[in-house]
Amino acid sequence: MSDQEPEEYPDATFNSDNADRDKPNSMNTAPNLFSYPKYWAECYGTAPYLPMSRAEMDELGWDSCDIIIVTGDAYIDHPSFGMAVVGRFLESQGFRVGIIAQPEWQSTKDFVALGEPNLFFGVTGGNMDSLINRYTADLKVRNDDAYTPNAEPAKRPDRSVIAYTQRCKEAFREVPVVIGGIEASLRRIAQFDYWSDEVRRSVLVDAGADILLYGNAERALAEIAHQIANGKSTQQLTDIRGTAVVRAIPSDWTELDSTRIDWPSNIDAIPNPYEYGEPANCTSKESIADAALPLRIVPMPLQSKEKLDPSRTYIRLPSFEKVSKDSALYAHASRILHQESNPHNARVLVQKHGLHDVWINPPPIPLETEELDKIFDLPFQRRPHPSYGEAKIPAYEMICTSVNIMRGCFGGCTFCSITEHEGRVIQSRSQESVLREIEAIRDQVPHFTGSISDLGGPTANMYHLNCKDREIQAGCRRLSCVYPTICKNLKTDHSQTTELYRKARKLKGVKNIAIASGLRYDLAVRDPEYVKELVTHHVGGYLKIAPEHTEDEVLSRMMKPGIGTYDQFKRMFEKYTKEAGKKQYLIPYFIAAHPGCDDESMLNLALWLKRNKFRIDQVQTFYPSPMSLATAMYHSARDPLKKISYKSNKIYTSKNIDQRRLQKAFLRYHDQKNWPLLRKALISMGRSDLIGSRPDQLIPLESKVGTHRSSSNRKGVSAKPKKWLKARGGQWSSKS
Q1: Hey, what's the torsion of the CAs at 423, 426, 432, 437, to 10 degrees?
Q2: In Å, how far are 112, 115, 147 from 56, measured between CA atoms?
Q3: Tens digits of per-residue pLDDT, 108-167?
Q4: Phi first, then psi: what are they for 205, rounded to 5°?
Q5: Which of 104, 342, 413, 687 has most Cβ atoms within 10 angstroms of its Cβ?
Q6: What confidence tens digit (pLDDT) does each residue in 400-429 have?
């Protein structure tokens, strides 16, 4: 690649140099979610619970369902569960919606239980990806499933979306299947699959579904449901935002060719390989029409020199066949996908899978506050379906008194899939809507004690934080609003969140409100009043935050702030804790084996933990989830945050299970079980000076009797019981 070639996607806000490329699409508005004429079946009214059996349908007077949702989770009629949100929303549009929850997938028996749907099946793997739900980062099978009654494991298949779609097609071959949820969303293009250690095709192709929905799907669902109800076929629904389909290339579009990373230094206009005359052996006009191809092809490096209509331009990614064999091209495709994530300027992406083109439309337009309010005001029962009886469903027990106040995350952490699914634009509810939900919890949730377990979302403190200027936001292609520094155009005033907390505490019957969602502390330090409010009233003894690492090189791969920002927040936390007369503790989260993190980096992190008297038990090993940027790093050993080149230096990645276990052992340096492994590693690294009993040494010498003197009674260490400390992450502080 030429050194003179401009960056394809400079990480900068809207500017005139990129005006043609970055200007908002003409399709950057959307009809109000609740403006569609209701389907005729609205006359049946609202179901107490969406039916899961023919007996329930009979009680409602239904002869059939219009839409049937198949899900890998137990049915919990609560706005924290995707199938309930989707089902209640479609019900609000006038459709009769049934639920098939955790069906037996080896036959079609459960899939025909509600009869044939009039419009389509909606298939989701559930609130979690089915493979992440079943396997740990070390590929061990989990012993439970939090989304299943009594946490019973193995109630859903691996790759649930594929299995469920195939059974739906087997049961009713002519009924369309629309797939969605996080499992489908993160597999919308060819993606690296950690569990099989290979690149797999788009799940749309593997499942044989008709349409794939990604992200929060209400807009696309409303459009699809009403269009099918009006007689349209799924083959005609090709341009709906937030969807992926298999389709022929329109002949009046322009293709940006991004299938290569080794373009020559000087690129001339290349002939369109698809411009050809009528084949000698083909006289059928229909055959010629079927071969419709782009109006013209523009190499990606020349895009800035061309006048392109973004609403009629698509980007061709390297094909599945190429990215499955070339990890550098995979990293390149990942970079392009993430740069085309702003719903206001993203272009269509196209990726060939064999003879078929997977067409990924731009992301959905974010919901306005009043639309989101109406979603959360739908008539949820806030309980599991009665058919589960007294069974305990851990995921419900955990969130039954929590409130989701917003969607989306602009943090852009490379290891996290929230942004790929929900987007970077924050969608916030009104304060009034949140307060209504707290009152509904108080009045509806059995055995409510007066405690709200969380007011949060993907991030606790991004509520109503957005770009100061809509035009700048519409043209922006930054991957994060807070990395490498907080964007000057980002609102960091937490006053709406602080005000919400104060109003919520005053509600009748509410005794306390905890904030359990992860906190973006680099934002919080910009608003000391918010930190004081949080620490004084909403920390139930400990507060979770996620510095993730201490070393700058690793943090840069994660797109996380330096550890100095954590220190700044810690000082504020301790100051306001002391002023409140409380004993409270920070619980930091760290990741082992992240791409770019070698053993030396983990050793430095372990030494930092010991200097700061942290003994953490809740640790995690990097889990390569589909489609994340860090997963592209893991697979390719290249950094898609930068322009990809075959000549680029590769980054270190721990893939061997022993390497990953060693890095995790560094995080738990205090665990005697890890000492033999760490001693061996330290000697190999030439750091045997860190083995001994001095305070500056990491682990003790090997004991002949196999026992070691506990360091828990050292001067200055908290005298709190070990059980108490373990429950709070094991932080020890001389100020405790």
Answers
A1: 40
A2: 15, 13, 23
A3: 999 999 999 999 999 999 999 999 999 999 999 999 999 999 999 999 999 999 999 999
A4: -75, -45
A5: 413
A6: 999 999 999 999 999 998 888 999 999 999
DSSP string, 186-251: TTSS-EEETTTTEEE--HHHHHT-SEEE-SS-HHHHHHHHHHHHTT--GGG----TTEEEE-PPPT
508: tokens are: 């009748």
Question: Distance from first CA to last CA of the chain, Å, rounded?
Answer: 56
What span, in angstroms and rounded, lies between the C-alpha atoms of 588 and 607?
A: 15
Is residue 579 within 8 Å of 628, Cβ to Cβ?
no
618 within 8 A of 644, measured Cβ to Cβ: no
Other CB atoms within 10 A of residue 282 CB: 11
Backbone angles phi, psi at 351, to 5 degrees: -135, 125
Separation CA 268–CA 271 (nearest Å):
9
Q: How far apart are CA 96 and CA 118, in angstroms?
A: 9
Token code pair at residue 177: 């299947």
What structural domains and CATH numbers belong to the chain? 16-26+249-360 (no CATH), 40-242 (3.40.50.2300), 585-736 (no CATH)
The helix (run of H) or strand (run of E) holding residue 70 is: strand 67-71
- Phi, psi values for residue 644, rounded to 5°: -80, 135
